[in-house]
Amino acid sequence: MSCISSAACIFCKIIKGEIPSFKLIETKYAYSFLDIEPCSKGHALVIPKYHGAKLHNLPDEYLHDVLPILKKLAIALEYNIDSPEGKSYNILQNNGRLGHQVVDHVHFHLIPKNTEKDGLIVGWPAEKANFDDLSLLHKELLKKLED
């Protein structure tokens, strides 16, 4: 299956072979390759072969191969991780500019975490939830999920 694409999208051009890449795994619905601006050794991308800007824009079948590919890559990268703690990595998928998405084509990063200073550096601004507010949100979401 060829890429359902946008003519201007860099990832669509990579899938079609118009831009070279260090391809790792390709299936009917997805394509993976090494990132050329990596956060750490082994940083890879997995992209669906359907041009959708955000996750909710994709037909479900284009997501079927994503997690199995990420798992295979994580297993393969295990042998390149020198950390005494063993294999550590992040899987990251951003949506929209406020969500730190730069390329408007759904993509997943597999980012090995070999040391404290490489890979993904995360600051998580968590705060205690108000359980009354959380309960209202829960009910609202369940209603939307039923529709």
From TrEMBL:
CDD domains: HINT_subgroup (cd01277). It comes from the Eukaryota. The active site is at H107 (tele-amp-histidine intermediate). PROSITE patterns: HIT_1, HIT_2. A motif (Histidine triad motif) lies at residues 105-109. Residues 10-121 form the HIT domain. InterPro entries: HINT, Histidine_triad_CS, Histidine_triad_HIT, HIT-like, HIT-like_sf. GO terms for molecular function: adenosine 5'-monophosphoramidase activity. One of its GO terms (biological process) is nucleotide metabolic process. This is HIT-like protein.
